[in-house]
Amino acid sequence: MATATPKLALRPFLPTDTPMLAEIFRDSILELTGDDYSEAQQEAWVSRADDLEAFAGRLGKQLTLIATLDGSPAAFASLAGNTTIDMLYVHPAASGQGAARLLVDALEKLAGARGAEKLTVDASDTARGFFEKRGYTAQQRNSVLVGDEWLANTTLSKPLAAQTEVSQPS
């Protein structure tokens, strides 16, 4: 008997999504970054979603997309301005199913269509390999103070293909 493959789709962020996205944010950090960050670092990092109003404000000020699996939110990503991927988080249960790839593909296309020549991201040590496989190159290492903890990440960038306009015959 054949099994159905869960279907990935994209949709825009709605303010009512905030509690679910905060949960994805927390679960992603706590379950997927343990090889790269200490428990204290993870706890400081997840605390950034404790204030749901502030978290919603951050998501709402950016272009935030949600990847759904069979209609349920499984991952999200946000584009700050037209040039920076600010957040990319995948629920551990959806890890490896293409949600991150789908989100980043969409953000790259949207940024390019809005005139961006390159995209940058401050990627966690956990996410760095994902971005490097997609053509992003390391620019610098960073240390970020979150609460009382220092977290390391890497700024990576990727040139975007020039968007060519299709001219209509006259």
From TrEMBL:
Q: One short Pfam family name for this protein?
A: Acetyltransf_10
Query: What SUPFAM superfamilies does UniProt report for this protein, alphabetically?
Result: Acyl-CoA N-acyltransferases (Nat) (SSF55729)
Q: Sorted alphabetically, which keywords does the UniProt record give?
A: Transferase
One MF term in the entry's GO annotations: acyltransferase activity, transferring groups other than amino-acyl groups
The record, for InterPro entries, names: Acyl_CoA_acyltransferase (IPR016181), GNAT_dom (IPR000182), N-acetyltrans/Recomb-assoc (IPR052564)
Q: Which residues form the N-acetyltransferase domain?
A: 8-161
PANTHER family tied to this protein:
ACETYLTRANSFERASE (PTHR43451:SF1), ACETYLTRANSFERASE (GNAT) FAMILY PROTEIN (PTHR43451)
Q: State the protein's name.
A: GNAT family N-acetyltransferase
Q: What does the organism's lineage look like at the top?
A: Bacteria, Pseudomonadati, Pseudomonadota, Alphaproteobacteria, Hyphomicrobiales
